[in-house]
Specification:
The structure is a homodimer of 480-residue chains. The first copy, chain A, has 480 residues and is an alpha+beta fold. In chain A, 36% of the residues lie in helices and 27% in strands. Chain A has an 11-stranded mixed sheet, with helices on both faces. A 5-stranded mixed sheet of chain A has the order 16-15-17-18-19, with helices on both faces. In chain A, helix 1 runs parallel beside helix 11 and helix 3 packs across helix 7.
């Protein structure tokens, strides 16, 4: 048992030190490796395969709404970045600058894209002339660079993978509709595929994106009670169009400015999955995005017929459309179990001489560790049912946990008490004044996560901070 | 007809000016747009969708051979790039340098990856310890940057999309096997999916990759008789492993150096497809990679029932698993035909009032412009057969053209005459001395494209250049 113990002991317990637990999991589950470039990560095969599964399913959902993929350059000339005032102020301090091409200094320095609004505007300016050219619903999958001072795997790194959608529309209404539509695509994806409940809402003026008229967000609650902004969708109105001169002639031959949106999610979603579903045994992946959904582990594999049967079961599962692997290494079964649990593989199949005699194998769920004996001829069907059940109960478990960590506060005393004693979202009314946001941030390092779409309850008439008349319900929280 | 004429006239004829024809096609077929960043292109929806189709099918073929995807940072510290001498000499003159992060100068400047051998070596050095850790068959899909002076859409740009596979093996034999295996994956893909015949072979010492022991290549012949290097696979031996210290303990507990390979193809393949299959009507895409395989074009679409029937036919084709669109714009049918041909859509379905009376629609092939009347109830089946037939005959046509442009030369007089009068590959024996390669390059701007695998014929005993005893058959040519 020494090897198994060693593997398990290598993770810090969640309760003891959540941050260290997280770092241990990303390393031990082989998702990430550190590189020689400070703040840049290497996505190892399992880490990248999760991203591929996210990408595939999101891309499908985007295309269903009429989105087309494109690819724009990774460099932005400094003069182009400078065109929209608020935008450049938001990003200039954290971009990487290219100053030399080959052996020669560049005439104008280029930044590596931190986001591509300016490039899309420059492109749209040329390709949009008439109302017939609208809408443009373009998206790109790429990496972006932000020169962050402090970094953490998946959550914040100097280079990260993402998608960025950029659309242009004839009317303000159409732009607003697209902004909300894409937020809902993200939210449904998180809940249905990542088994991760999210709160859909609007950001306050203080928290919105640099250059946007409005920013919508999905906020998830991590196991430690901190919030994670998991996806955002921005309505730019015609601000960028005016800065870049994106105009079209409408049906009545009048010149109009286009209305634009942008929306993105990143590999940060993988960090969210880890912190929502993981436990002291390691990573736990929802079956929908698990690179390997089932691991077949032979017991006493040197005994006659065991390996052959294990391979046969793998074949059966594969034919049932399941992503399955077999662990034929010479490690002990206990060690293999620990590894499979650490890597978050949702289901394992154990097969040994005794099971063979009984004509069955043992299926163990990663989430509940519950075991089921399954006759060989029912394996494919049962495994599919179990995977569906795991997907569902992972969502329910995460939702119960999230709901149990939402607290109401009616005044600053209650707010103070709650934020000092509990970890989670605090629902509190807000007057709409940024001073109150600033005070809460200063006092508790907490922020307005969002003003929810679906939760219009007025839990009080007055602002939780200043006591003046309240305008909006806000979910407050400490965030990653 | 004025609009149709305008659209068609906008392309220069191939015979008149092949380079201009090419530029016209990439623009008019809406594959590419120029960006504000000199030498960097924008891949528009159709251009990117072709790349997505290439990516999807190649990725599937890679994974069948046991390749796993990863993602490494886009930056390489200067000291890391400098570790392998030949490699840095090959790339240092053409990389883009990042010197500032945010407002501060970096301690060490970083280049934007021109290729990632050095990063993979740095990674492998840490993750390879034992023979159990081998092989590593990793690949990444990303963009790379090379600060080229002259650029052309798809063929040569400062940033381009590609995949780069990097593998590490226990033995030299295994590395060699993987190098050749991946070259064959590329070659089969080009022939089966891009309908583009290629010559598989080895590069000479002069033409091989910076730092490689051997480079294998696939060479295709463009319509104008110039060669295009379409994919390469490199065997590094243990050169990089020695420079980076990638060592493992073998089964007998001895320390050994790993043996490595790398291999890549780029968006250049799209340029190849254009120049192999295109004609004076524009782009012609093999059905396997065409974003839209069939365009349904209603004739007299305002007449009762026409649009409804056209939509029904689209539905039928979609259900048959075909990528199909319908052109419902208010342009004339003739203009729509020209657009569909310009965009290279392999098949069109015409449906008008007369066809409806006859219970049939007209299918027109893009490649031969041949028309077939097809009863409605046979549409799905017939369209699938026609697409398969187009795929096949596009390959055959390209192969006939290629084969008709391969010439033999037995001495320098023949070589000179051929290269001055013909365009294509010249087969000629070679003594193995670089002086002859240099002379041919100086005299005719032609290079040794490859020493073929499958063509071992000795067409003469002596070198086509110097007349000394010959060692190898070489395909010579002018190249993009």
């Amino acid at each position: 048992m020494s090897k198994e113990k060693k593997l398990v002991e290598a993770i810090t317990s969640m309760e003891e030190d959540f941050a260290q637990w997280y770092t241990d999991v990303v390393k031990k589950a082989e998702l990430i490796d550190y590189s020689s470039i400070k703040g840049c990560m290497i996505l190892k095969p399992d880490g990248y395969a999760i991203w591929e599964n996210i990408q595939k399913e999101l891309d499908r959902r985007f295309k269903e709404t009429g989105v087309e993929n494109v690819y724009l350059p990774m460099f932005i000339p400094e003069s182009l970045l400078n065109k929209e005032k608020e935008h450049v102020e938001g990003f200039a301090p954290e971009v990487a600058w290219v100053t030399h091409g080959g052996l020669n200094p560049l005439q104008e320095r280029l930044c590596v894209r931190p986001t591509s609004e300016t490039l899309f505007c420059d492109f749209y300016k040329n390709v949009i002339q008439s109302y017939r050219d609208l809408p443009k619903n373009y998206n790109q999958w790429c990496s972006v660079v932000r020169w962050e001072k402090e970094t953490r795997p998946f959550l914040r790194s100097r280079e990260f993978l993402w998608q960025e959608g950029h659309t242009a529309h004839a009317t303000a209404e159409e732009a607003e509709e697209r902004t909300v539509q894409m937020l809902n695509v993200y939210a449904d994806f998180c809940e249905e595929v990542l088994a991760m409940p999210v709160i859909r809402g609007k950001k306050t003026e203080k928290e919105k994106f640099a250059g946007a008229e409005a920013t919508y967000t999905i906020e998830a609650l991590m196991h430690d009670g901190k919030a994670l902004q998991s996806g955002t969708s921005h309505n730019f109105g015609d601000g960028f169009a005016k800065a870049f001169g994106i105009q079209y002639t409408d049906k009545d031959n009048r010149l109009q400015y286009a209305h634009q949106t942008s929306w993105g999610v990143t590999t940060r979603l993988i960090g969210a999955v880890i912190m929502v579903h993981g436990d002291d045994f390691g990573l736990a992946l929802p079956p929908e995005i698990a690179p390997t959904q089932v691991m077949v582990i032979p017991i006493q594999q040197r005994k006659e017929g065991v390996l052959e049967m294990a391979r046969k079961l793998k074949e059966t599962l594969s034919k049932a459309g399941i992503r399955v692997k077999i662990d034929e290494t010479d490690k002990s079964p206990g060690y293999k179990f620990s590894e499979q649990e650490m890597r978050g593989i949702p289901l394992r199949v154990e097969i040994g001489p005794k099971d063979m005699e009984a004509g069955q194998c043992i299926l163990t769920r990663r989430d509940t560790r519950e075991k089921t004996a399954v006759p060989f001829d029912q394996l494919g069907e049962t495994a599919k049912e179990l995977l569906a059940s795991i997907q569902k109960s992972m969502f329910e478990r995460a939702k119960s946990h999230r709901d149990a960590h939402i607290y109401d506060a009616h005044n600053y005393e209650e707010f103070t008490e709650t934020i000092q004693q509990k970890a989670g979202f605090i629902r509190g009314m807000w007057c709409g004044n940024q001073d109150c946001e600033d005070k809460i941030k200063e006092d508790f390092a907490a922020t307005a996560r969002c003003m929810p779409f679906h939760d219009q309850e007025e839990i009080s008439q007055v602002c939780v901070c200043c006591g003046k008349p309240a305008k909006k319900l806000v979910y407050w929280g400490k965030a990653y």
